[in-house]
Amino acid sequence: MIIHLIAKPGSARNNKTGSWRVGKKPKFLQKNCTACKNCLLICPEGCITGEGKNTFNCDYAFCKGCGLCAVVCPVQDIVMVVEK
């Protein structure tokens, strides 16, 4: 017998967790983007949005500043900048 456990969605969307950021945040230059969507796929918080070339952005209310998006960008169109 297989039992599937399905939990109700939590309130993560209501918890703005960007205040936990580590001092840097991604800046999307929107110059050389090829719309590969690597940043969108690797973001552990799912806070990157956009469709098409040069339209990707980050919702800083949820971004932790991990920098994975900048690391996987094949054209270095995302840079990590110091938080002000």
What is the number of E strands?
Answer: 4
Query: What share of residues is helical?
Result: 10-25%
Number of helices: 2
The backbone outline, from C-alpha atoms, is globular
Number of domains: 1
Strand content: 15-25%
Task: Please list the strands of the largest sheet in the order they lie side by side.
Answer: 1-4
- The first-level CATH class name: Alpha Beta
Major sheet attributes: 2 strands, antiparallel
Mean pLDDT: 85
Outline of the structure:
With 84 residues, this protein is an alpha+beta fold.
What does this structure look like?
With 84 residues, this protein is α+β, with helices and mostly antiparallel strands. The protein has a single domain, classed as Alpha-Beta Plaits (2-Layer Sandwich). It contains two helices and four strands; from the N terminus they run βαββαβ. The longest helix has 5 residues, at 38-42.
Task: Please outline the helices and strands.
Layout: E1 24-28, H1 38-42, E2 48-49, E3 57-58, H2 68-72, E4 78-82
Which key terms come to mind for this protein?
two-stranded antiparallel sheet, 84 residues, two-stranded antiparallel ribbon, globular, 4 strands, 2 helices, alpha+beta, Alpha-Beta Plaits
